[in-house]
Design goal:
The protein is of the alpha+beta class. About 40% of the residues lie in helices and about 15% in strands. The strands form four sheets. Strands 1-2-3-4 form a four-stranded antiparallel beta sheet, covered by helices on one side. A four-stranded antiparallel beta sheet has the order 7-8-9-10, with no helix packed on it.
Length: about 475
């Protein structure tokens, strides 16, 4: 039997299990809120990247863009980001339901961590538990499909999202709600960042007020460096951008006005800014919505010849009712590349095996041809004289189709010697200076005079014809 003796003036020790009465200090309000915005920063950033990539496809092929979006795809939800449409290949046949839940949960966590209602605070545990399930399902799906290397950044984001959400939920259970600060004013710095980062409000403007411009932009993405911006570099983009800015201002006013309000803030201030933003939004959105269909119609049906920079020559057939204009444009540093368009949409292209410009041609009777380039249009065929010689005399004929930019036929004299030529018939007006002269009763043809003799070529097939 043990005997405990206590000396006078000393307090007897308390008996019990080791650490039974040890109390862990409750988390401070600062600790509870320290990482509460991390899940929203992760999901919100990914949402914005995919949102802008979808609504402004002109930027989608930016160097490294596909790699970054593919890496972050586990955190992207096509259903609420891109109207259910995949932006990268890994999103095909994937609903993104787990990522959608994480985004909605990330929006709920910050306000719930500041609420003084315990029932609402307890819901953080439910949200975090469901987030664990969502992350586990997402990770297992990536493992099963063997996409770990393609989505490393996304996996890291999922882990950080989950850890910070769990930490926030656990700390929020023990914090003294009376010490919680009000919503920070510093969050409003996001508004000038949003305004200055032009693609963000422009994407919002397209989404809300002219979604048809997005489809028009997609149709011209493969139309060359100049025309791929045809749906963006237009006066309509300014009211669309301003509309998106006003939507951001309204969101900021809502954030400033909803309770709990900041001490010392006048109640009328957010309402004043919101009213001004709403009036501006009505004006700019009306202008953009009214002008967008006309721009879409132009991109679908008009010829892009005037918008292509540094072109060497072009031919347009816009006389087909109900059909977009068909255009053939020659470009390149050596004027040796022909590209065809239906409206502003590229339909094909082919090399010319020679240069359209500069050229010094003569007719078969040695009459000089003084036009800038030597060519003629025959229905769907453009026949062009090209040269590979230092003296710029023509030594090749190339026929290219307007419809698909493909080569119909080509012709050269023996040993690629220079020749004289004359165009008869065709759809272009007669012009002796351009070598287009049609004699009475003469069919559509190209008269070529080589050193070995003259030939008359069918403009459709390039086959010599009698006459």
């Amino acid at each position: 039997m043990s005997i405990l003796t206590v000396e006078p003036g000393q307090r007897s020790p308390e008996l019990g299990l080791l650490g039974e009465n040890r109390k862990r200090p409750a988390p401070t309000a600062r600790q509870a809120l320290a990482v509460s915005h991390v899940p929203l920063a992760i999901s919100g950033t990914v949402w914005w990247l995919f949102f802008m990539a979808y609504w402004i496809p002109e930027f989608h092929n930016f160097p490294g863009g596909d790699f970054l979006l593919t890496q972050l795809s586990p955190l992207a939800a096509p259903g609420i980001t891109t109207q259910g449409n995949p932006v990268v290949a890994l999103q095909v046949d994937r609903s993104g339901a787990m990522a959608a839940y994480l985004l909605l949960a990330a929006l709920a966590i910050p306000p719930l961590t500041r609420t003084r209602y315990w029932l609402a605070r307890l819901s953080l545990m439910v949200i975090s538990y469901a987030a664990v399930v969502a992350v586990v399902v997402s990770v297992l799906g990536i493992l099963v499909r063997g996409q770990v290397q393609q989505t490393v950044l996304g996996l890291i984001g999922l882990v950080v999202w989950l850890v910070t959400a769990l930490v926030t939920s656990w700390r929020s259970l023990w914090v003294d709600v009376n010490t919680l600060p009000i919503r920070p004013k510093r969050a409003l710095w996001l508004l000038p960042v949003y305004v200055l980062f032009v693609p963000a409000p422009l994407a919002v403007g397209r989404w809300l007020f002219s979604p048809e411009l997005r489809d028009a932009a997609v149709s011209v993405l493969d139309s060359g460096l100049t025309l791929r911006w045809a749906a963006l570099l237009t006066p309509i983009s300014l009211p669309l951008y301003l509309s998106g800015v006003m939507v951001g201002v309204l969101a900021a006013c809502l954030y400033a006005y909803v309770p709990p309000r900041w001490p010392g803030t006048r109640r009328r201030t957010p309402i004043f800014f919101a009213a001004a933003a709403l009036v501006t939004l009505l004006i700019t959105s009306t202008i953009a919505s009214a002008a967008a269909p006309g721009r879409v119609e132009r991109l679908a049906t008009a010829s892009p010849a005037d918008d292509v920079s540094f072109s060497c020559g072009h031919w347009v057939n816009d006389e087909m009712p109900g059909e977009p204009a068909r255009t053939l444009i020659v470009t390149g540093a050596r004027c040796d590349r022909a590209t065809s368009y239906a409206g502003y949409r590229r339909t094909g292209g082919s090399p010319l095996d020679g240069s359209l410009l500069p050229i010094r041609a003569n007719q078969p009777d040695e009459t000089p041809i003084t036009s800038r380039y030597v060519a003629a249009l025959y229905d769907d065929i453009v026949v062009m004289a090209t040269t590979t010689r230092l003296d710029a005399r023509p030594n090749g004929l190339v026929a290219v189709r307007l419809s698909d930019g493909g080569r119909a036929w080509s012709f050269t004299c023996a040993d690629h010697r220079p020749f004289g030529l004359r165009f008869a018939g065709g759809d272009d007006p007669a012009d002796p200076a351009a070598g287009r002269i049609t004699r009475v009763g003469e069919p559509d043809s190209i008269n070529v005079a080589c050193d070995s003799g003259s030939s008359r070529l069918d403009p459709t097939t390039g086959v010599p014809v009698a006459g």
